[in-house]
Amino acid sequence: MTDKVSRKDFLMAAGASLLVAPMALEGLDRGQRAPVQHLGEQRAVVVDVTRCIGCKACQIACKVWNKLPAEKTEVSDGEFTNPKFFSPITWKIVRFKEIGDYDEDAAGTGGLKWRMLSDNCKHCLEPSCVSVCPAAALWKRSDGPVLYDLDRCVGCGYCTMACPWGVPRFDDDLHAVRKCTMCHDRIDQGLEPSCVSVCPTDSLQYMNLEEARRVAVDAEANGLYTYGVDEVGGTSWIYISDVPFSEFGLPEYSTVTQKGFESDILVKFAGAGLFVGGAILAAVKLYAERREAIMKSGSEGGN
Amino acid sequence: MQYRWKTSDSPGVAKSDLSLFMKLYNMWRQRGILRLPSELFMKDHPEEDFPTDPMGRKCLEYIAGDEIWGFSGTEKGQAGRPCPDINWEWYAEPDTDNMKASDQVYAEIDDAVGLYDGQYRAGHVGYKSSVHAYDDGKGEILAKRRVNNYRDGIDKEYSMAKNWAWCWPKNQRILYNKDDCGENDTMNPVTFKTADNTPWGAPSGERSNGWPYWRQGSTFWWGKERTGMARIWAQGIAKGGGDLTKNYDAWTGDKPPVPGATFRGGKLQGPGGKPMVGIPEHFEPMEYPNTALAEDYPCYGWLYTNRASEYEANDKLWDDGLVGLPEDGYNVIWGSFRLTEHFHTFTRNMPLLNEMQPEYFIEMHPGHAAEVGIDSGDYVRVESKRGWVICKIRATKRVGKLKINNADYWEIMTPFHFGPKDMAKGSIANFVSIGAVDPHAFIPETKACMCKILKATDAEIAAIQEKGYHQGVY
Ligand code: SF4
Ligand code: SF4
Fold first, then answer.
1. Closest-approach residue (CA) in chain B for A22
2. How near does any CA of chain A get to the CA of B341, in Å?
3. What ipTM was predicted for this assembly?
4. In chain A, which residues have their Cβ closer than 8 Å to the Cβ of B370?
5. How deeply is B328 buried, as exposed, middle or buried, from its count of CB atoms within 10 A (0-12, 13-18, 19+)?
6. Contact A72 B358 (CB under 8 A)
7. A42-126+158-257 to CATH, choices 2.60.40.10, 3.30.70.20, 3.90.1150.10, 3.40.50.300
8. Phi, psi of A21 (to 5 degrees)
9. CATH number, residue B360
10. Which residues of chain A neighbour B39 with C-beta distances below 8 Å?
11. What is the mean pLDDT of residues B205-214?
């Protein structure tokens, strides 16, 4: 009898620890992740627009791996792009674009072209989102991904303004900013990013940065357009296309790095006052959160 | 953890234990504790090791020891051609007479896949080298198979019991493969067969060299080399469609297309008085955009067949006034298609797919939309003689103006996945489409018809915005 009970106890304990262990890990992950900074060669992804068939597998794979919920969308324009914009729960969008018209003279315009571009955070080599962040919640990992820590984010939203493509989006529920992480957790396991692993046409290809830049330079020599080799000082996601990138709404940037962009913001948008105001707000938020945490732990202790 | 009978409300959110296991599974996946066999395989076998397929892409069809099976899955050590010649001498219809209905279905699927896959290739030994859906040797439906041992070392290494059940080997279709247009061709859309299955007409040389064509103003079928060999007798259908004999005279006096074929009672009959089937395909649909063309190239649906029911079904459409004529303003060509994002109508409860294609729409050219006076995201009323739907439009240049017999016709396209229920709602596309039946293939003509496009009224817009769909039949 005693034998049986102890056995049951043991099984229950084992089962419980099995259930709890990953959750404990989850907790660790959320709060105390230290930026990993070493990590081998720089990795990059080449996005070849000329090969993309617009299947949106990458868009779904992103949501599936990162466990992001679906958005409520509607039909609003002629293109199949949906959702239309990045959001805290949409980190990747396949942008569809029709160029020309079907009956236009083939000699003049090439007729109708339908192109798709798989768009997300470019993981800049010198990211302006990182340099504006007053709380150091964002950082560039040496092997490519630009990462962020939800718990360090004070929700000031500077990065949303600083990013040339408006990639980081503010999440009202988490009161923090979220964006593509280049599947750093997969890279750590030696896997490709989720979107790359599902692309049926090899439109997305994961390789090291030098090779990616070489591929882009070759493409340029063949008369194709590239994006991300020099733009804003270079990015880890490099795009190749047979149509100009302005068609997809990607602005043309000089080869000058955007690293000094924070000072631009101060001058251009709101002046120093905003910065100071932002810092004060940040301090207030930090204070409030801390106070809340203390109150919470206090009340729990009281019970 | 499982609530089977609810006596009171649960204290919190009650979920099945599966959701907990999914959470655990995801955590383990995310941390690399759990790996998929494919991921492990990719890690151990660098891409450089893979063979290249005929299109120059790296592929891994199936590696067994040192052998690499060809692209077409039939010959060892050779990357097969994607368009194999089919040797029709070796081809035999599956013998399904003594099978159960379920077995018949799988045997037929297997046969079709074999055809697509080049199983009966010229120059190849005359046997079917791999089974797909049905194993005729064992009389076994492979979807039911439960073999949990491994085929070889690789399977074992990655714990993949590939003989567990069956799945489609490839989802491939050969469309208009000119190599396949042999004499006894059954894959080609233009098919010539008599009721007792003897091939006739269509000399193979002609079709190998190019497509057969109709010469305007006659109902003769003209091949490239031998003209006048195969010809049809057809029924004029334009406007009312009652007249059987429009081109009857053109045919009589010449020798019949099939030895032994006769006309009886105004209807063509095959040898031995059997009804004719397999007359060359029609060019104009039941609902046609251009009357002049419809008179010259009549609808196949009106040809006499041995399936009186289909013929009558088509007849009834006319009698019931369910066919719209271009003269009455039904002059926009309506076509339906599938979206990549949805599978048939089943996936409209999947949030991630609904996010990408959230509602029913039609595609119109921006020029057409401007004529109607609307823009992307506005509502229209799409109307045919059968029914009407209210839906949004997407202005896109992927559809456009078609020139038919020197007249311009706008074309619209629409997905058919939607309906009034489920998460992603929308009107039902097939309220507009036509139920005409192809008497040879017995397939309804639901992919093309004629319609009218009207701007939706305020009341209609209010109705669809409230319900998510708005539709009706006449
Ligand atoms: S694309 Fe925007 S969010 Fe991504 S690294 Fe560059 S600046 Fe930061
Ligand atoms: S998975 Fe590849 S082909 Fe499909 S949309 Fe994304 S980039 Fe394009």
1. B27
2. 8
3. 0.73
4. none
5. exposed
6. yes
7. 3.30.70.20
8. -55, -50
9. 2.40.40.20
10. 191
11. 27
